[in-house]
């Protein structure tokens, strides 16, 4: 069992015991509902819940205990994926005293401290543009001195396919790089050859849900204002799925944008140049 589940069950079980000691009552009332298929685990809802009813557990937002949720939905507007909504169903009554105990409990305070100032303790879900240290140094400069530390060319966050949105500013007018996540490890000069001057989205068409990739990329192509796509993927058969996803996303978006594809061999060589 993963640590997140252990912590969640410990907290939930602990407060369930306290509630039973008080004499828990059930009633039909409004309470938050989380669609885990849509949830990316960004944690934005967690920081907006004044009662501490939510936590990110193994990458998904969850209700720690239903008695902490007042059903007012202050967290809903913070979800970029629309994964939260208020429903009405039988659930334990909201317990204001239990909330006070919960917020004062050292276990809760330690979890909040571990999260840090950003949701999930990770800022990578927040859109930001980064100035490359090399100032878009390019392929030639990257090879000038082998003994020197190579400067990075990364210019955007987030980079994970699940986290990007079409309203992120770095897409507009750009040639977006869609990279299979093995490529940067296989191809030594990934930054200098491919990443310079491009925002990047990374993913794995074999291990992740392709339908989710298709829907997200269609939205980005249709609404972000990007001008072209460059694909880098490995030579293995499953990686070729990226080309199909991109082609179908362009078709579904109704846009007509150019695509270049680079294929990298497992030995780190270029098998096909875009």
Describe, in short, the structure shown.
This protein is an alpha/beta fold and 274 residues long.
Which SSEs are present, and which pair or pack?
Blueprint: H1 3-22, E1 26-34, H2 44-48, E2 54-57, E3 60-63, E4 84-92, H3 96-104, H4 106-115, E5 128-129, H5 138-142, E6 156-157, E7 175-180, H6 183-186, H7 190-195, E8 200-203, H8 210-223, E9 228-234, H9 241-253, E10 259-264, E11 270-272
Parallel strand pairs: 7-8, 7-9, 9-10
Antiparallel strand pairs: 1-4, 2-3, 5-6, 10-11
Helix pairs in contact: 8-9
Task: Describe the protein in words.
The chain has two domains: 3-123, Alpha-Beta Plaits; 127-272, Rossmann fold, CATH 3.40.50. It is α/β, with parallel strands linked by helices and 274 residues long. Strand 2 (54-57) and strand 3 (60-63) form a beta hairpin. Helix content is 31%, strand content 20%. Mean pLDDT is 80; it is low at 1-11, 13-23, 113-124 and 135-140. The chain starts with a helix and ends with a strand. The protein has helices at residues 3-22, 44-48, 96-104, 106-115, 138-142, 183-186, 190-195, 210-223, 241-253, and strands at 26-34, 54-57, 60-63, 84-92, 128-129, 156-157, 175-180, 200-203, 228-234, 259-264, 270-272. The strands form four sheets. Strands 8-7-9-10-11 form a five-stranded mixed sheet. It has nine helices and eleven strands.
